[in-house]
Structure prediction request, 252 residues.
Amino acid sequence: MNRVSGKVALITGGASGLGAADARLLAAEGAKVVITDLQADLGREVAASIPDALFLEHDVRDEAQWQGVVAQTVARFGRLDVLVNNAGLVRFGNVEECDLDTFRLQMQVMVEGCFLGCKSAIPHMTKGANGPWGGSIINVASVAALKGISAIPAYSAAKAGIIALTRSVAVHCQEQGYAIRCNAIAPGAHDTPMTRQALDQLPQDNAGLDQVQAHGQGRPEDVANLVLFLASEESRQITGTHIVIDNGETVG
Ligand SMILES: NC(=O)c1ccc[n+]([C@@H]2O[C@H](COP(=O)([O-])OP(=O)(O)OC[C@H]3O[C@@H](n4cnc5c(N)ncnc54)[C@H](O)[C@@H]3O)[C@@H](O)[C@H]2O)c1
Prediction:
């Protein structure tokens, strides 16, 4: 019940799917949670269902909004220990069909959003001086970063960018002597509004769809358990890596 007791966690894209499950589990394990999202009504609803949770409307592409969100988190709860860069979206269209604006939108939300999150949060995160632990950043990538899926080139590129960014951030924190770890997670298909929309929109003969059918879908709580582990001190020797959670989709 207390695996992250005393910690304060900020979760982007927390109004829905994986982010909402992360917020619920981190709070159940003792953390104070701040949920941010573009979807304000849904975000407020999720926050209202979690004791002491705070919702902040937030576009992860906006640097000024990031500064406001971090400042409000520290003002409300006095510290920031865990950042889950979870906000994301997917748009379909192979490399010949995908237009530049659609490509850029996905890079902005996921790569730039993740970059701005790390950049804005690190100066304010626990670095080992004011508690028994340092901080933990968890960046949400995808198995799409690790394999070719023709229908989502921009999404795949953005998620691969997140994994590379994660390594740089982890090394930077160590070089600076900050006790802040930074890891990525790479989920396969889990049952969320994004996955349901994807399964509706993908052509029935798409290879990505076949693999979802072959490996099944996890539940958001399965990913939340991995986020909880990375947020907690149990993972204190793990930084700069990515952990795949895909029921074997990428191994054979
Ligand atoms: N569900 C899966 O199978 C799966 C697999 C691999 C990776 N992921 C990743 O997990 C994360 C969560 O996905 P999900 O499945 O819960 O999807 P979801 O659509 O249920 O939730 C994503 C949330 O991100 C928010 N968001 C989108 N753009 C934003 C922006 N600019 N600023 C702030 N918030 C924004 C949305 O409003 C939404 O609430 C995403 O990064 C996604 O790419 C999901």
